[in-house]
Amino acid sequence: MNGVIEGFVVIGLVIVVGYLLGRSGALGPAAVDVLSRVAFFVASPALLFVTLAHADVGAVFSEALVVTAVSSSVACLLYLPVGVLRGRPPGETAVGSMASGYVNAGNLGIPIATYALGNAAEVAPVMLFQLTVLAPLFSTVLDLTSSRADGERPPLLRTLTAPVRNPIALASGAGLVVSATGVQLPESVLAPVELIGNLAVPAMLLAFGLSLAHAQRPGRDDDVVCLSAVIVLKNLVHPVLAWAIGSAFGLSGPALLAVVVSAALPTAQNVFGYAVRFDTGVALARDAALLTTFLSVPVLLVAAL
Questions:
Q1: Burial class (CB in 10 A: 0-12, 13-18, 19+), 252
Q2: How far lies 128's CA from each of 7, 96, 148, 150, in Å?
Q3: Which of 243, 278, 287, 302 lies in disulfide reach of 218, CB 3.0 to 4.6 Å?
Q4: CB under 8 Å to 244, separation ≥6 — which residues?
């Protein structure tokens, strides 16, 4: 249970620093956009590449990966009818869908897995699925919907090649190739990539804190029904799905606890970064990340106990 508390303290302090910087105006009015773009185009791809290059791909292809893939996908899909019925823009609906099933597996999941589950590798399946499937998929969808929102109709070739032009997808693919082939990169090549990758999480958390400095209270800038749907799906439906699907696959004890805890993690700040990058659903992503983080505490504590 110490891991749950420690994880929340770590990300909370960084967000508070961002909030104080925002209130002081020290970084200027463009700070949120600049930090989010640096995280999306440079730091996050570097982090994904290093993470996947070092991952034992064979070890994470297990029942836990299947449970993670199915439960996360279902949680994301369940939001789509809500966004459509509420008449929200396609980009915002994609952000809400991502917020419903994309968990904070990196900066919160790792310490929780280390202390609550006894092994940081327990979050490897959810990280692998998110890095290789959800992140490239949603960033590609947001790229295409943002182009149409600007009045453009992307050519067929642009649409078909969107995944291979996306920095998240390219970095994920390259990392998997390195891991699968066992290539040993020179330290002189890997060290600067790792250094840049270390910027990703702090940049996203600081940008998140900056965005809160002058934001209205949660829910004021959103469609309340859409925000409520994200919260219910992320904090309740997603972990219940993981428990039910994991049980159906025969998982029990620590193995079942691991997939439930992974699913119970709150919406990742990455979602906010993507929303800012594509200028859609920013308020929904910000408020979902904030509220699901607070509400995930009792869920995670109950699971850990």
A1: exposed
A2: 20, 21, 30, 33
A3: 287
A4: none
End-to-end Cα, the chain, rounded Å: 7
Which CATH number does 2-304 carry?
1.20.1530.20
Task: Enter the tokens of residue 200.
Answer: 């990703």
Burial tier of 126 (Cβ tally within 10 Å: 0-12, 13-18, 19+): buried
Strand-pairing partners, residue 267, are 103
Residue in 254, 292, 252 with CA at minimum distance from that of residue 272: 292
Q: Which long-range contacts (CB under 8 A, 24 or more apart) does 131-134 make?
A: 131/48, 131/51, 131/52, 131/172, 131/175, 132/52, 132/172, 132/173, 132/176, 133/69, 134/72, 134/76, 134/98, 134/101, 134/102
> Any idea what DSSP says for residue 267?
B
- In sign, the C-alpha dihedral spanning 99, 102, 106, 110 is positive
Strand partners, 52: none
Q: What is the mean pLDDT of residues 235-258?
A: 92
Q: What is the pLDDT of residue 148?
A: 61
- 175: part of which helix (H) or strand (E)? helix 167-181
Residue type, 246: G
> Do you know the residue count of the chain?
305
Distance CA 96, CA 94 (A): 5
The model carries a pTM of 0.75
d(CA 262, CA 127): 9
Q: Is 5 left (phi over 0), alpha (psi -120 to 50) or beta?
A: alpha
52-56, 113-117, 201-205, range with greatest mean pLDDT? 201-205
Q: Is the dihedral of CA 209, 212, 217, 220 positive or negative?
A: negative
